[in-house]
Amino acid sequence: MAYQDAPATRMLATNCVCCGRPLVDACSVELGIGPNCRHGIFPEGVDDGDRVTANACVYRAALAAQNGKAEEVLECAKEIRGLGFEELAAKVERRFKEGVAQATCKPDISIEARGDELLVKTPYRRGDAEAFVSAWRAIPGRRYDRATRRNRIHRSQRRRLWTLLRRFFPGKWGKGPKGVFRIPALPVEEDPQMEMDFEAKANEA
Asked: Residue 98: which pLDDT band, with cuts at 50, 70 and 90?
């Protein structure tokens, strides 16, 4: 298992929010951005309070990015821009802005919440169809709805769903009840702690 996926590093920023490369030094992990991408982002004489706030936004964006929460990344970029750091904001949002716009209209993967079920539509994997179908069938209670061409699973199986999506669709864009998300382009082993929260915002209360 790569260090990025180890349970001990689950809440750490393991990849640069700007370029997506692994972070390999303590300072970069703490900030959520690599040395090359953060070079020269703060002008001379910048207020220390604004710098700390911007760094916190970058870190939140990095965690959101590695969990596929694209719209949250863009919100962080907006906060950074509001502090006056235009160059940094542009770097943070660069990988996600175009993808969010495209996925809003035509996502690679769509997930609809209906009662206690999630209706999931994905592209068909012809190259490894047997493994793809087997992975779906391994999800308890899963059934295929031929009328809508969607897999139906219980909400309680969303962790297994996220593992399946990360395995077969790394880097792809999707749209769910909470908005647009991007599946991290990182290798992953099935981990019961890894979860993408597809719950509708209305159910958060």
From this structure: confident
Q: Looking at 105, 122, 143, which one is the last position of a domain?
A: 105
Q: Is the pLDDT of residue 188 over 70?
A: no
* Confidence category of residue 201, pLDDT binned at 50, 70, 90: very low
| 7 and 99 belong to one structural domain | yes
50, 75, 105: which is the final residue of a domain?
A: 105
**Beta strands per DSSP E along 29-126:** 109-114, 117-121
- d(CA 95, CA 19) in angstroms, rounded, equals 7
194 and 113 in one domain?
yes
Q: Round to whole Å and give the CA distance between 4 and 195.
A: 15
pLDDT score at 165: 94
Pair 183, 120: CB distance under 8 Å: no
Kindly report the backbone phi and psi dihedral angles of residue 154, in degrees, each rounded to the nearest multiple of 5, phi listed first.
-75, 150
**Rounded Cα–Cα distance for residues 54 and 115 (Å):** 39
**Is 90 exceeded by the pLDDT of residue 11?**
no
User: Is-contact 86 54, C-beta < 8 A?
Assistant: no
**113 vs 29: CA distance, rounded Å:** 35
Range of the domain at 130: 109-203
Q: How far apart, in whole angstroms, are the C-alpha atoms of residue 101 and residue 22?
A: 26
- Look at the block and give the residue holding tokens 């699973």: 153
Q: What percent of the chain shows pLDDT beyond 70? A: 85
